[in-house]
Every structure is written in structure tokens, then in C-alpha cells.
Predict the 3D structure of the following.
Amino acid sequence: MASESISVTTSDDQTIQLSRKHAQMSQTINSMLEDSVGADQEAIPLPNVSSEVLKKVIDWCTHHENDPAPVEKVKKLNKKREYKAKNSTISDEWDKNFVNAELRVIVDILLAANYLDVKGLFELMCKHIANELKGKTPDQIRERFGIQDDLTEEDKAAMRKAWGATKNDS
Amino acid sequence: MESLGMFEMLPTEVVTLVFTKLDVRSLCTVRRVCSHWDKIVGCQSLWKTLDFKPYMETRALEEVEYIRKELSDENLWKSEACGSIFKAKEHGKPAVPAATATTSNEWEEWKIEPLPQTPEGGNSDSSSKVFIKKRKANWEEDIVSKKLRGEDYLEHYKEWHLLRHIDFNGQWTACYGTHGDEDILVKHYGYTIDTLKLTGDIHIPAGKPTFRMCLSRDLASGEGEIHLAEANYEGPRWGEASLQLRSSDSFDILWPFQTAAHQFISHEFYWAVVTSACVWPYGRKPEDLPPSGLPRAG
């Protein structure tokens, strides 16, 4: 029988122990475990995740370990409720605190959540970044996310012409 | 800057998922951030993942209201910045700082006179009556949006002088997608355009109308309806469409995808999923036409 704790090796060659429950919140690790039932539990290599980020992910898993698994019941709710479920408000106070981090860390966690397939965490990070994007002008977004403006003036003029201008225009 | 390039690292599918959390307004904003994001937002699959049914019921109506409110904000287009753009454009110089720009007086010069009570060529034809009410609203909206667009406005105003004598009457050739080129007859009176098909196809036979438009004041664009029907002219109906002038002798007819037409209200989204037909004078080749300024979907 597999042990209660799983060890994983991160990109910076650190071995981290995490409980089976937390490990199973990641679909990626979960399927690796299922594939290797009965085999000796060696440390699972996670070459795309650093120990710093993994610790953050475990933090989140610890706080959300008792959350009900995301089920498809949303579909049964009426359409307006579904829309509410789709919007990007972060309701949990702990989560709000969690995402209050440097952009670099946020992006790393987003990538890790994507790689490890931790659905709830990935959703949270998407929502957070979406919130960062909302209500900003293109210039503000470029500054915030350090993106090069590679659109030509013609492109911009064509866009303005097609969609009209809004107050958010730079 | 530390975060430089951080966001470029994200795989396209992750960015797409982030964008699914955005509303239409924000999507249109992020589209203008860089060409990569423009491509992602322009991708049909992203719009498909958005659940538009509830959006239509709640948000879109709010959005439309919000945009209307913004457009009607008089102070917005009277702002000093707007004035400076016009002044600069006029003299072919780069925009001067707002502080040194003349504001109200120069701006007034470019104000288009009010819509006359009886528009020239106003016709009592039954189909033009349908548009008479809409026409005024269209025209006012048109002007407000041009004021807001700032730099385009002067160009449009000049165009208007050129185009006011334009005559759409006569025979034209239109490209109807898979049906190929078809000839149409255009009847143009005042601000109204009616068209008759001279070549028929499997959906709409010759002799039936194909679109009718109510032109804006500058005759450079128009709104109206396109005649749609199933094969063998079953279930004929009118669908929303618009007209965009390419040059003095060709124009585009744009309409939202038929199947999706009832779903979209948002102006921005309307332009994201449209299909178009170019119309050019009979006997000329489409290759001669200048490229259209409108970005195409997908």
C-alpha cells in the first residue's frame, strides 16, 4: 500500500514531502500515482516547478483541502447563476490574500497550476490576472505586464475605426 | 523592469483561459495591447467559450447602456485634447500640447449643421418610411461617435463634402461568397438605398430585393437589412446589416453570421463576427478596388 506522504523533486533539485491528499489535488501527480501503483515510491520529478512555487501551491492545497470537488452541477443552475459563476470575483478572503503577490510569483503559480492541473488554483490565478486586466487602458496593461507594443499605428487606427472608441482609450 | 517578458512566457492556451474570465469590453481592450493578444482575442474559439446567453440577458444590455451613456457625454468630445487633434490634423503638424491648443472656437467650426427637417430627396416610398425614424437616430449616433473618435472626425468631415453628391443609382456587381458574383440594381434616393437582384441564386431568385440601407449623413456608411432566405426562397426574412463605403465607387455590405445574428447586441462583438460582401460597379474588376480599411474576423 502506498504511503501517506509522497515525495517530489522540484526543478531546483529539492525533495519535498507532501501528503497524499494534497498530491491528489493535482491531476498530473494523481495520474502518475495511479500509473505506478504497487511500484516503489520514488520521488516524482516535477521539472517545471520550483520549490518556492510548489510551497505556495501546497499552501493553497492545505487551505482548500476540504473544498468539495468541482462538479458539473453548475450546468443545472439557471443561466444567470451560471453567469455569476463565470465572473471573476474572488470571494474567499484567504484567496485574496494569497494572490496579493508579485506578478512574477503569480505567473509562476499560474504555470505550475496549469502543469500540475490543480483546477481550483488555476481558476483562481486566471481570475486574478483577469481582474488585473480589467478597467485598464492598453498602455496601463503594457506597463503592468511589461509587454512590448508591436502594433502599428495603422493597426490601431483600423481597430478604432471598427469598434469606435471608448473612454479607456489611450 | 522585473516583470518584463513574464507574460510572454505563458502558453497561448493559458492566456486564452485567462481571457475567458474577461467581459467583452475588457477583451476589446486587451486586443489593443499587442499583436499576439490581438490574434488570441480574434480567434473564434475564445468567443465560443464565452457563454453569451446569460451575457445577453444581463451584461450586454448594461454594456450597451453604458456605451450609450459614454457617447452622450458632451464633455468628452469638447475636451481640450480633442480640439488639439483637429487643429493639428488641419495644418498637417504633430499634435500640440493641450495647454496651447485653442479649444472651443476652432472646435465649433467643425460642427456639422443640424439635420434638416426634410432631408433632400426625402421620399415617401413605403420602404423608406420604415427607416425615417431610425435615420435620425442613426445620424445623431454617427456624429457623436465621430466626435468621440477625434482624429477620424475631420477626415470624415472632408469626405462628407466629397461624397454628398455621390450617386449609388445603377447597376452593380456584388460578390456573394459561395454563390459567386451577381449583378444587382441599386435605387438610391436621399439617404435610402433599395436593391434588386438581377442574377438569382439558389437562396434568392432574381427580381427579389437583396438589401436595403439607410445611409448616414456623410453617405460613407449605412445601416439596414439584408434579405435572407433558405434554399428555394423558403422562409424569406430580413437580417441586420450595415454598409461601409470603401471608395467612391465600391462599398461593403456587412452582416453578422446568420445563425448567430440574434445573439449579438454588443457593438464590439458585432464587429468581431461579421461576414461581408464587396459591391462594385458593373463591368469593373474587383482587383481594381482599393483594400478595405476594415479588419476582417478570424
Q: What stands out?
A: Chain B touches chain A through 54 residues (CB under 8 Å). The radius of gyration of chain B is 21 Å. Residues 23 and 59 of chain B are 9 Å apart (CA to CA).
